[in-house]
TrEMBL record:
This is Ricin-type beta-trefoil lectin domain protein. It holds the Pfam family Ricin_B_lectin. InterPro entries: Ricin_B-like_lectins (IPR035992), Ricin_B_lectin (IPR000772). The keyword Signal applies. Keywords: Lectin, Signal. GO terms for molecular function: carbohydrate binding. PROSITE patterns: RICIN_B_LECTIN. Residues 29-149 form the Ricin B lectin domain. Residues 1-28 form the signal peptide. It comes from the Bacteria. It comes from Cryptosporangium phraense.
Length: 153
């Protein structure tokens, strides 16, 4: 009886430890694409961690899985499995999902558009007509607004 109690306790402890490594929960099989309101281009990425916008093409590099976490959401790229990340210099990129606050984004809803504010920096996800994606102080402008479209995979 004592051995079974010890084994059960060890298994429960291992399950809790593993669950702490998984960054939030998402609806299985659901993704979003995000179209920039000002440019009409979609949020995109690649295997090297670059983030940019391109014409919307329906590809998996433009599909983002939204995970609810403490303080907001993470956006995980469907093609790479990397999470949208940022830093205090205003760079936006993807990295392996690590549960850090630089990968947590607070969603502000403006009708059908969204603004994404980084939890650590307080800056908002922004873009320009050259396809660059970065973060800047939140200003409510159309370059910081993203229209989501949902789909399943």
């Amino acid at each position: 009886m004592r051995i079974r109690t010890l084994v059960t306790g060890a298994l429960l402890g291992a399950a809790v430890a593993v669950s702490q490594l998984i960054p939030g929960t998402a609806l299985a099989g659901t993704f979003n694409t995000y179209t920039n309101l000002a440019t009409g281009f979609c949020l995109d990425s690649n295997g090297q961690g670059r983030v940019y916008t391109l014409g919307c093409n329906g590809g998996s590099f433009q599909k983002w899985i939204l995970h609810r976490v403490d303080g907001g959401y993470t956006l995980r790229n469907l093609a790479t499995g990397f999470c949208l990340d940022s830093n205090t210099e205003g760079r936006a990129y993807t990295l392996g999902c690590n549960g850090g606050n630089y990968q947590v984004w607070q969603r502000e809803v403006h009708g059908s558009q969204r603004t994404w504010r980084n939890l650590s920096t307080g800056f908002c996800l922004d873009s320009n007509t050259d396809g660059k994606v970065y973060t800047l102080g939140c200003n409510g402008g159309s370059y910081q607004r993203w229209t989501p479209a949902s789909g399943t995979y």
